Amino acid sequence: MGKVTIGIKENLFLFMMLVFTNFFVGAMVGIERTVLPIIGEEHFGLASTSAALSFIVSFGFSKAIVNYFAGEVADRYGRKRVLIVGWAIGFFVPILIIFAHAWWVIVVANILLGINQGLAWSMTVNMKVDIAKANQRGTAVGLNEFAGYSGVAIFAALSGYVASNFALRPEPFLLGIAVFVIGIILSLLVKDTEPFLKEQVKAKTTQKDEVGLSAKKVFALTTWKDRNLSVASISGLTTNLKDGMAWGLFPLYFATVGLTVSEIGIIVAAYPAAWGIFQLFTGVLSDRIGRKLLITYGMYLQAISLWLILIVDGFVLWLIAAVLLGVGTAMVYPTLQAAISDVVAPSWRASSMGVYRFWRDSGYAFGAILAGFFADWFNLFWAIGIVAVLPLIAGLMAQIRMNETLKSNN
Predict the structure, then answer these.
(1) Structural domain includes residue 1
(2) CA separation for the pair 167, 311 (Å, rounded)
(3) What is the DSSP letter of 404?
(4) Where exactly are the transmembrane stretches of this chain (predicted)?
């Protein structure tokens, strides 16, 4: 292959194929979001909230661990190979849930879902960043996350509708088999972005682009040594900690106030829908006004939205609060990954992104653990309210400690 040209517009077909692929990556998670917590109570008789949320813990930790290694593996073996492996593992998720005879089978299915997401989602975002110019990273990540969380939202609503009209199992998870088929076909057809990465490495050399930068050093820089990377990791962890709580507790909380499964599905879908749609704008906006402002106030808005859900009463008001929660998440989600891409060199970008995504997605597990603990010891109301304090703290840290990263590596 000859010389490649970096840029989204110059490689629009490949870029849009990757966007479309990540829509179906997100769909795999969306199928679960409305119905699985309810299945835990109704089909398996799980009285403890902590037990009911164990599937999110297994998902969060497996995705976090895979994220950590996915970047290094992708740097070594190529993005496309890792993407295909991720989809191959995803096939077993809906199959196991359909035929599960005990809750531990659901937990195993979600370990595999975490691996699927850690590999497939990580690769789609890394491949887009490979293609994009330095001043297009927010746009690239925003479009990736828009597609993924649109998939989450649409299939969360769709699975809720199917469950309401048929049953909690197996009908909603038949959708998962169809999603797998489409996803694996797209992954086989998409072109690898390795030539674009090599072009970036060749064209860009920075003082941080050290030869033989070890995995241990990348981990230390991303976790605590670099103030911008460490704030990004904490903000990402806190954002997904909140999402792990929302995933597990929202269906249960809204069921206690008398909403139907279909109504719960709409609210549960509205949150990732807003999250997905607004990333179309926040990613682009971060390329223009910078990263810090969106990260700081996005964390604040997440905290306020969670408390608003507890204060208001009525389907419409809960729906508005869920949308605001999605907007707050959209403000930070693509911006954090773009900020990391600003700071790190191309040669260890995927590895650093893997460390960030390790911390970010471990938030799912920590959120489910904390939410289950507080719900069992207090109630659902207090569990949501206490977890909401954490995004507020992360916002304060970003405001005080983080520098603007937009022009640091362009």
Answers:
(1) no
(2) 32
(3) P
(4) 12-31, 51-70, 82-115, 146-166, 173-190, 252-281, 293-310, 316-336, 380-398
